[in-house]
Amino acid sequence: MATNPGFEPVFCTIIPPHVLDTLAQSDDATLAGPARRTLERDSIERTHRRLTTVIGAPSVTPPKEAAASKPHRTLYDARHKTDLPGRKVRGEGDKPGKDATVNRAYAGLGATFELYLKAYRRNSIDGHGLPLNATVHYSEDYNNAFWNGEQMVFGDGDGEIFLDFTIPVDVIGHELTHGVTQYTANLTYFGQPGALNESMSDVFGSLIKQYTLGQTASDADWLIGAGLLAPRVTGKALRSMKAPGTAYDDDVLGKDPQPADMEHYVRTGRDNGGVHINSGIPNHAFYLLAEALGGNAWERAGQIWYAVLTGGRLAQDASFADFAKLTVAAARDKYGDGEEHQSVLKAWSQVGVPTN
Q: pTM of the full predicted structure?
């Protein structure tokens, strides 16, 4: 049985550091400037995340009047500054205002809450009704969104490479799922366990998008961050679970580096050992499983992945093979030796991850 002695000081952003590093080296100041400032802010927030782990984050409890079946959302506006959380602009149950960014963030928090509650009977991120707080309009031309262990934060993007980070609902679901992982398996944010951490967020971020749109596995585009890239960028999204390595191929950003199988596994010291890169492998395995089973991916395929993430047997330093073996066991436990079990075995075999 895996133990979870304390939260890792993980600071998770939707845009990988290696992408921002590339932009920061551009000869075009309109691209390099925002990227460099974003990297600087991320460094500061990463340090803050580590400190809150050491000294303890403020205790957050649901209000007494909050129902177990409903979210408790609070939206703040940083007004392009960096003090968190900022000025409160919308509370739970308040009518939509004129700020589309606030309204999208509010809806995305609600969509994430609903998927976890309806599909997995999980009451918010921690399972116990944790309030969902988010800050929008963070900093100036900030090219990222992140979960800092306590709340969500969204940048507006620079308008050149990235647009408003509240546009794709799967980005919101991705970052909040880092919170779910934090409260459950707490996967170490380096190498293969770090890539699994990122993959969990991509999987459930995609499921939140599909659930919100009422899409089956075959209907879904399986893209992460579609709508986030500015018109000048040659690409569709940040990542593709269906075809890792094909999300973008741009003269500024370069080519999507994600592999789809272990034969093309990337060994690197950057990006915490390639957590945003090699996550393409378990991402692709989940896509193959969901496509094979058909129907709604948050049902059978999602139930298997959720059972492993929250079941208590997934070690913090789990490898892809460790995770794969647990999904095979979970499929058998939940559905017997039928289609689900065989499809899980086949999916991992197709990406080159052993299950025995």
A: 0.94
